[in-house]
Design brief:
Blueprint (H helix, E strand, L loop, with lengths): L1 H27 L8 H19 L2 H4 L6 H27 L1 H9 L5 H22 L2 H15 L14 H8 L8 H22 L2 H13 L5 H17 L2 H19 L3 H14 L9 H10 L3 H29 L13 H6 L2 H16 L4 H17 L8 H35 L1 H12 L4 H15 L5 H18 L4 H14 L8 H10 L3 H11 L1 H12 L10 H22 L8 H14 L4 H30 L1
Length: about 625
Amino acid sequence: MENKSTYQKVVQGIVIAIALFAVFIHVGNYTIFTLPSILFYAWHLMIGLVLIFLYNPLEKKIKKEVSPSMKTVCRVIDWILIALTIGVSLYVIINFDTYVADMQNNKLTTEIYVLGIIITILVLEGGRRTLGIVLPIVAIVAILYGLFGNLIPGLFGHRGYNLQRVILSIFSDRGVYGTPIGTSATNVYLFLLFAAYLNVSGADQIFQDIAIALAGKKRGGPAKMAVVASAFFGMISGSCVANVVSTGAFTIPLMKRNGYQPRFAGAVEAVASTGGQIMPPVMGAAAFVLADVVGVSYTEVCIAAALPAVMYFVCLFKMVDLEAIKYDLKGLPEEDIPKLSTALSKGLKLFVPLFILLFMMIALKATPMRSAIWAIASILILSLFDKENRLTVKKFVDGAVSAAHSMTSVVGACSTAGIVVAMFSMTGLGLKFSNFIVQLGGNALIPSLILSMLVCAILGMGLPTTASYIVVATAVAPALTSLGVDTLAAHLFLFYFASLSAITPPVAVASYAAAGIAQENPMKVGFTAVKIGITGFILPFAFALNNDYIIFNFDFQTLLTWVSGIVVSYALACALQGYVEGKITIFERIGYLIACGLAITPYVIPSVAGWALFGVLYGFRQIEAKKKRAAAAS
């Protein structure tokens, strides 16, 4: 026990040292020095892989009880992998100019061939330890396709490549040092650090208090509070599963005590947490990849995602409200509600960093990296003046370690996805796949969109959003753009469905996490989540067919689109729940669906007609309910 304790202390000390070095290298690269991009990516990948092997030791992956001798063997293997990681990375770092020249000339030396094989194995093992077997298997299949694709007849065949060419592609800036890991290094880590320091400064509790104060008193208050809290927390976490386990640990039991069924309580948290990935200003890691792939600023992605995110959460909030009506659920007791003024007064260190982040990105047009660094600096400075939760050296270190831990899953996903991207690029599989979708869809947009949605659902099974998006963007996006879909709209379409794979059965990681807390069958939670998160499945089709939902000129058309968006969200919730201050008829439900169909169009007359139909249907039930309350009171 003493040896184990000593070993764990040593590992913990190494993790802290690496986490602090990660802060230095990532923040320093945008403040006091500037490294060439691939050199910076090499440092990032080395740090990430070493942390993966430290945080996910082999002995933890062996389910049965590990004997002392086997434990020693597992630890030796871990340290061999760490040593290999450092060795490969230092080769690229020390011999950077030679490495770049060899890559540019497609020159395969013995060193590059051997190190390329090693880094491929290390990345696959790192992906397995952080993500499970699905993405590594996809990467291995992609490698096998590169090697033996010449044996496949027809559209998906190619001329075939030898192992040397495959390894060269993986070890290059088209593979493990390509766009996916670059996005993780440049954008994602700094926002993970931002979220980590918000949390250690006590911002997560402030989020929770504000959510309870805003929604706790309302009917079905705990569920509404879960929606608000998850939207807030998701804005800074970007991870649906992390969101579920953090906010859900508090909100799901509270919803159950309030009278919500366990399947519904779990589904609300899963859907709200998944929505955090699409909620500006800090979206999921895949949003940063999207900005790089499309070639637009992250700010443009945030602006484009604003209305769809609002519609997603408005519909979810209304679904929760109508569920409370259905089961006559009340709000929280007065004594459990914190004062909003008190919660807001503590929120200075929360709102100032968010304001700085938004102001720099939108008003000053600063890069996301510099904006995040200034926002982090403001958190640290403000926390020094907080008497109740002052920043200490321990909290500073805890924030760095928390960001390093979050970084491992992103590095595992992005580096493994880099292998897939390299093979797609080398073999032209992405273009072949897109041509296949276009042909199967008969060159028609809507069937091709439906096929693309199904591909996202299949490829996204069990994968984190970032990895899922990278794979589908490489394989499917060209098909949509070739059919006339705007490039940003096409990638947002894929981004949404990559995100929603987290709640889509049969493999729905966010629903599974929520089901565990709710103590409910995961499939029941998953299918309920699909129902209450239905807006997320409709929205991508809306903005793929009508760019007004993501591109705003701030004119009458923008106003029309935003009003229509809110109407569609409300009408869809009413149609699905079958309640508006009471049970409604089947004809009313059909009427709400018709209102949705009219309002979602880009044309003035149908949209206004949809508003009017919704107003008549909704207003009628509100008047009826008011009369009943008046009669009951008299």
